[in-house]
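Re: your question from the hallway

Yes, I did run it. Sequences:
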Amino acid sequence: METTLQPVVQVQDLGIGYDDYVVMKDLNFSVNKGDIFIVMGVSGCGKSTLLKSMIGLKEPARGKVLFNTKSFWDEDEKGQKSIMRRFGVLYQSGALWSSLTVGENVALPLELYTKLSKEQIKEIVELKLSLVGMAEHKDSFTSGLSGGMCKRVSLARAIALDPDIIFFDEPSAGLDPINSRKLDDLILELRDGLGATIVIVTHELASIFAIGNNSVFLDDVSKSMIATGDPKALLANSKDPRVIQFLTRGKIDEQKDK
Amino acid sequence: MPQVDEKFEFDYSIPNTLLIKISGDWHISEGLLSESLVSAEFSSHPDIKQVNFSVSQDLKWDSGLIAFLLKLIKECTQKNIQVAREGLPPEAQKLLALALKVYEKTPSHPKSKESFFEECGGKVLQIGESMAHELNFLGDIAVSSFRLFTGRVFFRWDDFMLLIKRCGVDTLLLVSLISLLVGMILAFVASIQLKMFGAQIYIADIVGIAMVRVLAAVMTGIIVSGRIGASFAAELGMMQTNEEIDALKTLGVSPVEFLVLPRVLALVLMMPILTIYADLMAILGGFLISVWLFHLNPVEYLNHTQLAVKISYVWIGLIHSFVFGVIIAIAGCLRGMECDRSAAGVGEAATSAVVSAITGLVIATAIITFICQVLGV
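Structure:
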């Protein structure tokens, strides 16, 4: 579980599109082990599409996504499954299965990918739900949960198999600042405890600066990345007005207007 | 003397203290260890007041170790035994702290644990509530219809025309196929008895009367229930799930006026037209079989059909289709509007809409047939 600086995800010359429409091109960046890596950019710039390519839901038009030197899209189905087995995903809406209880949602990956007995799965489910503070809701149906609770259950499901990498799509979306902050703290604690690498797609500045230590900035005009590195360092040192404008919530525009 | 197990070792060198030395592979894939081995130590050494840990260099772990430690810590707490977690890997300590953290309690909705009889009783009571709800819904539609005629409804005619197309034109192919085949099947079945008397020409009467009076309307009703009723329920159910219906309410627009009324009107308008079309297709089916296979005279067949099918039968068929249109549209819209806000809820709404519509269809057919019998039509 010890942390070493080594790239666990490498995006090389990646291009993504729908038919003839180019969403993103020329993406090159690495996510190191133990990073909390932020994919940021304005709404509609292609953050979620990039995430889909990274988690195996959308085949890129060109380039590679390497997981520990294995190219996901060059692997056969078995190889892709074994890579996917090593990462967890928290979707924007939580994406909990509404026909299952909270406990059953977390148990499903364990039933699919481990040979544990029902009792043992129950123990692990309780542990994972305890980690996110939802153990007492294990028999509840997801329809009765608040947005923040759904996110926490979804996180418990994402970490059910002790993943090496956890992907988050807009984790703060729909949450109040207090719950958003609690979720950020939880992400930090889980990163430290599980020794996992975290990739977060977000445009919430508070979260970006609170937990991110590495990032890529996507630009909707050039349809490519225009900056990479620690978000705080980008704020301090970047000369690109688009990056500064984003990281200062458009203060550059305000100054110009004055 | 230290006691050795496969993955842990017990050491009692410090008085009243159990030192657990953890080693080996504790990954989930290796299976979970029971805490009973350690519990046995507590029983055999009742003087234990504290548990310490130490880990070896070869320790490999994930949630398997944490799950084991969590159970052990809970047992120690029950037995008033102190647990010192300092000897564990720092990451494991963090996870344990997180797992043992007390979160604020929020009311939960646990699974219902009612007995079979309680559930049955509940279901019976629900029937009354459900009927009241359905009557309310019917009332809303009636009021909205009245408001439509007085021009006080926010009614989008473009949407209405699209619904007309969906209920009518888009269903035509399926109605053609099914009606043609039903007409053919009826001709075949009728011929079994009639050819024994050399009275195959009466196939025209049987096909004509049966289809025009009731069967064409029933077959069209069943097709439309599956195709349109289910789609109404799923569509409105999805809108309920996405809070689109709430958005309408907050705008001050009645969902019944905006969503239900156009659907009910479109279907009520299209059902009679589809039924007339189904009548013609079924008669064509009977005609084709009779002329090609039983070599009946085409002109004689058409004359017989014309004589047998009275205009009152056409009206009875149209009344059926009108009633069916109302039933299917209301069943679809009602199930959609009361749909649970989940994916499963949308599926249930669609299924329930089809079941309710077909059940309603059969009951309505029985009632109309009985009334026609009493009136001697």
